[in-house]
Design a protein that fits this description.
This protein is 52% helix and 12% strand. The protein contains 27 helices and 16 strands. It has a 9-stranded mixed β-sheet with strand order 1-4-5-11-10-9-6-8-7. A 5-stranded mixed β-sheet has the order 13-12-14-15-16, sandwiched between helices. Strand 12, helix 24 and strand 13 form a beta-alpha-beta unit.
Length: 739
């Protein structure tokens, strides 16, 4: 169906005609795993057509942002119709059964509604194109022809209603003809969108070219329009080819004689004929559009794998600042840095993550070793300690990890983790306290706002499950269910425990009474240690409560206990935890979930066949912290400089001044100043470069300055500039920077 190809090309022309902001096309395939394939294909085709388009970013209307969805629905329905017809033709059943007619009718009705919405969307863009042209001269003439010759919104809507009535009456023959008539209406509307978009882009130039044939008043209108059109839109590579095809078509027709309005009407009629599917030229046009989209060198703009992102400019400034704060906190506590491979032997990772093991990225066998991308930084750290026979180690690591997860908002397949771990024999609960203290320092110094650290103890959980009557072999799998309580209601979790994991309803209900317990650390601890408490009668939970008492006293003395909440629903699903477990949650408006987590894992290192080495650690989910920091910056209307450049050397001249720029900039660099240079014959370009990059100081050098042996130093904020000797300009810059 040619309409499915042409409507994308025409819509692309309209985007350029109204200079629309088309950045929303980039977000159609968001990488979250739930993508509208046809809409994504339309968006991708539109981006191919618009490569190189220079948008003024005037804003985006619904008629622009809805293009991928509306045009995508037409593609989807046409494909479904083709499939349905092919099935019916090959079914081997003679004649049309009632069921077949209804099945085809249902699919064709989808085509009718897709045409309705496409026509409405196209009409909106027609009016946007006419608005851009104005209400005088060419714009007025084209608007008058549009009102006379283009089907109106009422004609389109009534055409759809008539078709729909025929379907309800089950008059399938007339229904089919009705849909064909509706298709003709939409064709005309799309053709008018192409005509108005083309003349909005090229009309003034075309009409100006035949100005000698117009009367004096009409010539003045054309000239007035030319004055208004100060800057011509830079077309995309694909759309520029389409525009040239239309121009060639009009040149073949020629200008002829008569006034401008007569000529305009003649051109409109010719273009309507050109866009008629009945004309052989139309097939050539459709084929040309396909070639533009499908040509190998511009087939598709590169795209990212789902669940990954690029970062640049201001985003990298925020990330680097955060990484610096995090590393400083880690070093303050005596940690040394460790780097491990991005992939490990598969056997190293398997059996460490419980039900989450299915999220490990396996790599193809490349010569006898089965490898997987690291899922976290904790297991590689444990492998390193075991492999090297280390018995005491305080380390930090900031690196990427990989998870074969279903991408969603705040959940990615590649992301950074920032880990701090303490391994070795230490005084009881000393490392556990320090780890929690490190976490609160990190979140305080990153200045993200209000948060809380939910804390529990794995042995307390085990004791609770034993008290409730859960068999020991189901402890870990039930903990995985309990760990979902931050995302699901207890009734949902209960259903999973009972129906999927075979737990008795009474046992699940008893678990429910305990996991609802949540309070400040000292208060809930006191409640659990009351005389007669079932937790004191269980060896596992009793020991956990004693350890938590030491921990809470230490946190209180270090003045960070106000950030901690004792929460019996916290389970942490990973298999390797053996003691204290915790999770930090952001309490601001940005919904990101957990931002950090960790706990004690005394047996993990010993799983690699070495002597057991107790350890405890924390992992900061830095990607979610970045999301919070970026949103806070937007909320505060803060701007971030993408560079740290202190001074811009601006030299008036052409490329022959590059050696001079090299000499002077090198002097700035040798003085350890952060500097850039630009050479241009245009003074405004030098100033714009400094302002765009928010560079505070400029050194301006022109021929006159060189003759006098001086340069100008300009403060971009105060606009004050001073002449200084060329021989000492570096020292003068340093003085102004207070260096």
């Amino acid at each position: 169906m040619g309409l499915g190809v042409v409507d994308d090309a025409v819509a692309a022309l309209s985007c350029e005609a109204v200079r629309a902001d088309v950045r929303s096309f980039d977000g159609v395939d968001s990488g979250d795993g739930f993508v509208d394939k046809e809409a994504a294909t339309v968006a991708s085709d539109m981006k191919v057509l618009l490569v190189g388009y220079d948008s003024n970013k005037r804003g985006e209307s619904d008629a622009v942002s809805e293009i991928p969805k509306v045009n995508g629905r037409l593609r989807e329905v046409v494909k479904a119709l083709h499939t349905m017809v092919r099935v019916e033709l090959n079914s081997g059943v003679k004649g049309s059964s009632g069921g077949s007619r209804k099945a085809v009718g249902t699919t064709v009705s989808g085509l009718a509604i897709a045409l309705l919405f496409l026509g409405k969307s196209s009409l909106c863009r027609v009016k946007m194109n006419l608005d851009v042209m104005g209400k005088e001269g060419l714009g007025s003439g084209l608007a008058s022809l549009f009102e006379k010759k283009c089907p109106s919104r009422d004609v389109l809507t009534n055409g759809y209603k008539a078709v729909n009535d025929l379907l309800v009456e089950e008059d399938y023959v007339k229904f089919g003809y009705g849909v064909y008539g509706l298709l003709g209406i939409v064709w005309k509307i799309v053709a008018w969108e192409e005509i108005t978009a083309f003349f909005a882009l090229e009309g003034v130039e075309l009409m100006g070219g035949i100005g000698g044939q117009a009367n004096e008043g009409e010539t003045k209108v054309v000239k007035k329009s030319e004055k208004k059109k100060k800057k011509k839109t830079v077309l995309g590579k694909g759309t520029s080819v389409i525009v040239q095809l239309i121009k060639d078509r009009l040149q073949i027709v020629g200008g002829g004689s008569g006034d401008c309005l007569d000529l305009l009407e003649k051109w409109v009629e010719n273009l309507m004929s050109f866009f008629s599917p009945k004309q052989p030229e139309f097939d050539e046009f459709v084929q040309k559009v396909k070639e533009i989209v499908e040509r190998n060198e511009s087939r598709r703009l590169p795209k990212l794998p789902k669940g990954t992102r690029d970062f640049a400019n201001e985003q990298m400034v925020i990330r680097e600042r955060a990484f610096s704060i995090i590393a400083d906190v880690f070093k303050r506590h005596g940690a040394t840095s460790l780097d491990t491979p991005a992939f490990e032997l598969r056997e190293t990772l398997m059996g460490k993550y419980g039900e989450d093991s299915k999220l490990i990225y396996d790599l193809a066998d490349q010569g006898g070793e089965l490898c997987s991308l690291r899922y976290d930084l904790t297991v590689p750290f444990a492998r390193y300690v075991a492999m090297n026979g280390i018995t005491s180690f305080k380390r930090y690591q900031i690196a990427k990890v990989y998870r074969r997860d279903n991408p969603s908002k705040g959940r990615y397949r590649e992301f950074y983790q920032c880990d701090f771990d303490i391994a070795g024999q230490y005084e009881e609960m000393g490392p556990d306290f320090e780890i929690v203290k490190v976490l609160t320092e990190l979140l305080d110094e990153l200045n993200i706002g209000d948060y809380e650290v939910k804390l529990n103890h794995r042995k307390l959980l085990d004791g609770m499950l034993e008290i409730c009557g859960v068999p020991p072999e189901k402890f870990r799998t039930i903990c995985s269910s309990i760990d979902k309580l931050d995302k699901q209601s207890f009734e949902q979790v209960k259903k999973e425990m009972v129906e999927e994991k075979g737990l008795a309803v009474e046992t699940a209900d008893r678990i429910g009474t305990f996991v609802k317990e949540k309070d400040s650390p000292k208060e809930l601890l006191s409640k659990l240690k009351q005389e007669g408490s079932e937790f004191l009668q269980n060896a596992s939970s009793s020991r956990a409560l004693d350890e938590l008492e030491i921990l809470f006293d230490a946190l209180e003395r270090s003045k960070c206990i106000d950030k901690v909440v004792f929460d019996l629903s916290l389970a942490r699903g990973l298999d390797y935890y053996t003691g204290v477990i915790f999770e930090a949650v952001f309490k601001g408006t940005t919904q990101v979930g957990s931002i950090a987590a960790g706990g004690r894992y005394d047996n993990l290192i010993g799983m690699f066949g070495s002597k057991p080495v107790p350890a405890v650690g924390v992992s900061l989910g830095i990607e979610r912290v970045f999301a919070i920091m970026e949103q806070l910056q937007k909320d505060r209307n803060e701007t971030t400089r993408p560079t740290e450049t202190q001074v811009l050397l601006g030299i008036m001249g052409n490329k022959s001044k590059i050696p001079l720029a090299a000499e002077l900039t090198s002097k700035l660099w040798s003085a350890k100043l952060k500097a850039e240079f630009v050479v241009s014959t245009r003074f405004d370009k030098l100033i714009s470069r400094a302002k765009d990059s928010k560079i505070p100081w400029m050194v301006l050098v022109g021929d006159r300055e060189l003759e006098t042996g001086k340069v100008k130093i300009k403060n971009l904020e105060t606009k004050i500039e001073e002449e200084v000797p060329l021989s000492s300009f570096v020292d003068e810059v340093k003085n102004r920077l207070n260096l």
